[in-house]
Amino acid sequence: MELKVSTRSHAGHALVAITGEIDLYTAPHLQSEFTRLLQEGPARVVIDMSGVDFCDSTGMNVLLSALKRMKERGGALEVAAPRPAVRKILQVTGLDSVFTVHEEVPQELLIAEGS
């Protein structure tokens, strides 16, 4: 399964939309996207996971690594709209208390996207 990552930035915020499966084979692609994005220095990154069907421990580690790097810079990394399978992984691992998890993509990012 292919992993698609698209990023839109606006006013210090970045919305990262991920589609596909995040696993051992696709995680390096996501990692490189986060590395590139973090060099741009947004204060807030929201990951739209509504298109993610599956995420294994490798994928969760990529997200945790990005969260750690954002926090080191005083920024925030949040997860939005995880599907039930991904939400369950977040709950079982306790990561739902580590990440800020939104039911859907925050409205202010969707508004910013259209401008």
TrEMBL record:
Molecular-function annotations in GO: anti-sigma factor antagonist activity
InterPro entries (alphabetical): Anti-sigma_ant, STAS_dom, STAS_dom_sf
SUPFAM superfamilies reported for this sequence: SpoIIaa-like (SSF52091)
UniProt cross-references to Gene3D superfamilies, sorted A to Z: STAS domain (3.30.750.24)
Residues covered by the STAS domain: 3-112
Similarity annotation: Belongs to the anti-sigma-factor antagonist family.
The protein's name: Anti-sigma factor antagonist
Organism: Nonomuraea pusilla
